[in-house]
Amino acid sequence: MTNLLEKRIFQIISGILKQDLPEASEDKTKFKLERIANPIFGDFSSNIVMVLKLNNDIVNKIVNQLETDQEIKKYIDKIEFKQPGFLNFYVKAEFLVDNLQRMIKLNKKDFFVKNPQSFLIEHTSPNTNKALHIGHLRNTVLAMAIIRILKALNHKVVSDCLFNDRGIHICKAMLGYLRFEDQQTGIEAIIHKWNTKSQEWPKPLASEAKDAFIGKYYVWGVKLEKEERYQEELQWLLKAWESNNPLVRKLWKQMNGWFYNEFAKTFKIINSQVDHFWYESQFYQKAKDLLKQNINKNVFKTLEDGAILTQLQSYGLTDTIVQRSDGTAMYFTQDLYLTKMKTQKFNCNWYIWIVGPEQKLHMQQIFAVCDQLKIGNINKFKHLSYGAVCNKDGSKMSSRSGEVLSIMELLQEINSHIHLKMNNDYKSLKDFNKVDQERIINQIALGSIKYAMLKLEREQDLKFDINEATDLKGNGSPYIQYTYARCQSILNKVKQYNKLENIQTGLITNEEKILLRQMLYFKDILIKAGENFTPHILAIYLFELAQNFSSFYEKNRIIDANTNQKLKIDLTKGVANILKWGLELLGIEVMVKL
What we know:
The protein is α/β, with parallel strands linked by helices. Among the domains are: about 90 residues, Arginyl tRNA synthetase N-terminal domain (Gyrase A, domain 2), CATH 3.30.1360.70; about 110 residues, no CATH class; about 110 residues, Isoleucyl-tRNA Synthetase, Domain 1 (Orthogonal Bundle), CATH 1.10.730.10. The chain contains 21 helices and 14 strands. The strands form 4 sheets. A 5-stranded parallel β-sheet has the order 7-6-5-11-12, with helices on both faces. A 4-stranded antiparallel β-sheet has the order 1-2-4-3. β11, α14 and β12 form a beta-alpha-beta unit. α5 crosses α19. The longest helix has 24 residues. The two termini are about 35 Å apart.
């Protein structure tokens, strides 16, 4: 409704301004309806009067034409001008009720935008030398929410993921593994020893996370790197890998295989997915060739020591080395060639990278070089960054070993915390059998951390408070999940009511009006969240809707209501539908009972 209103209102206002205020520039006359928090001032508002400083004569002319327009009168009951310069619109109660019926039916095609776009969205993209950690979780949770919202609006979305499966960081894990028990044997001799006596090296236990197992040896490799001898061994491993040394490649495949096995398990648990995987090891050589082909095209230049440098002065960016003097590849080279493959394989309107803020300059440089090489238009590339995750006091969230907390460690910690709360806040969980109890606790644990990440603006740091995230009464997913369960409990008790009863719009209570208004905003919220890649506005909306339903529930009898029984039951249905779908778009499951 809002889009139709905006278009028609803009037509009327722009027509008046062209006649009475021709000097008003087109960009200033852009019209936008915003929802009003306090219903006593209306349902939607525009500040165009304030922006253009319109005089009373023009304001009165605008209001009169808007109030008499037949299209606008279908939706709007009255229009008021309020100082210091707002046009406030009051939606007809009949239309609010009609919209409620649409929320009950919830035909998801009604939410499709007119001009859908196509997106390629890269997310998670881990190194294959350690477990996925909380930074990866925020990345993938944000990405999946954006992807689901865009798809709900009928945009075409493909997700991709790059495995950083080669390079010096991977060699550190291999060195740590080879050297954990033996620091004396030469590097070439020890790789042969491993090949013939691999049974002497440790293997992940059946109960052990294989990616965490690799991570232990990566940590050891980092410690070894401090000594010059091992720095030389790391370089030997890197060059041996790039030279396709069969023994080094064999060890690399074994350790990467352990990682991929655990990656798939973790992604299934957190309900994330990727449509297409890229492997750096499969194209790193072609990436180096791309540099050679463009050395003499004013894109790259060779330095005296043989290193290759960008030339980005015209973009206002600092230059960066893209290939070392010894000829070994760097991340920049791989990302450059990967972008070329992306644009060739997926013809999209937009190419999105969800990557941490520390990569801001790197991504700008990649986009600029891609623009220079005609790989793609720089305006079609977008970097979405996100904030860090830390403890509520701002300290790093670490495991017992001192490393960044892994996703599985975090979920286990939240799961245990909910178990401890079963004697107080979560008493109802005791009514379930052990299997269902564990399933629900897992759903609550995962939902609580996802919502804690998604309710914040994308680049805002999360100071995670486990008590706040799992609070059944606070701004967290358990509260919204509980509200949905309450709606279902009410609806399950409704045995019979007159579905054809006429709703008496004159008897709508303030609590009912608030819910009706909020449902009217749902589509606009989804569109805004998709357009701006901001799922936090959907998360906040769902919490506010749950809050207002709780207020409505406390002040109104529903099942045996004396007035507007159908309205009250329909409101419960509409709220339940929106909460369920909205949480699903955020990647959070609902429970019929909680």
